[in-house]
Amino acid sequence: MGQSVRDGLKDSEIIPEVIDDFHPSLLLQVSYPSNHKSVSLGNTIKPADVQDTPAIELHSSGAATSTKSYTLILTDPDAPSRDDPKWSEMCHWIATNVPLTTSTSDNAADMDGVQSAGMQTVAKGLKEVVEYMAPSPPPETGKHRYVFIVFEPADGKSDTNLTAPEDRKHWGTGKARHGIRQWARENGLVPVGANFFYSQNEEQ
Fold first, then answer.
1. pLDDT for residue 83
2. Residue 159: what pLDDT?
3. Helix, strand, or coil here: 2?
4. Which run of H or of E encompasses 11?
């Protein structure tokens, strides 16, 4: 499980452009139930289909369950374009209080974007540190990578005291090509899972 995710992140250059190399220990599933769309390691989804806040499932690679909660982010490293990422990274979402899903990953994988009982949403308890901003790639900027990353505290403690970036652009760092790597380090977080999709404006 983890190796295929890691390979996908490397093939798309999310590792090392967005996040340092790591071995995923959790399977992250993201869906947009209202449009029956699911994120699947680099599939392409139209901007119109990702306007609503997504639903989330987290699955452990082992059989054990956990009461630990996690932090999820969505970032765009290709703002305004992959060729000219002068606004990158762009912070699209930070949500905390994400629990492990108790249902099996096999059942979840067959959802095809339909929300299951195990899906976590803002309405069901996710806490937004930064409100979801739907992807909206500008015209004539090609495909953007929209990257979801799951984090846990490096010290194993609670992540309830996270600081929100001062700005969405550059995640408040003021530096191009800066973002989630710096924010996670400042908040004592380490990556444990990821997923991503491509999206582009219809006008190219």
1. 96
2. 62
3. helix
4. helix 2-11
Radius of gyration over alpha carbons of the chain, in Å?
16
CA distance linking residue 172 with residue 164, whole number of Å: 9
Omega into 24 within 30° of 0, i.e. cis? no
* Local mean pLDDT, 10-residue blocks, the chain (204 residues): 90 97 95 94 98 94 69 97 96 94 50 52 81 97 98 79 94 94 95 97 95
Alpha helices in 46-115 (DSSP H): 105-109
Distance of CA 9 to the CA centre of its chain: 12
Contact 185, 115 (CB under 8 A): no
Residue 190 CB partners (closer than 8 Å, separation 6+): 22, 151, 152, 153, 154, 184
Are the C-beta atoms of 92 and 133 separated by less than 8 Å? Answer: yes
Q: Which of 75, 76, 30 is nearest to 53 (CA)?
A: 30
Kindly tell me the burial class for residue 23, based on how many C-beta atoms sit within 10 Å of its own C-beta (0-12, 13-18, 19 or more).
Answer: exposed
List Cβ neighbours of 124 (8 Å cut-off, separation of 6 or more). none
Q: What is the pLDDT of residue 158?
A: 65
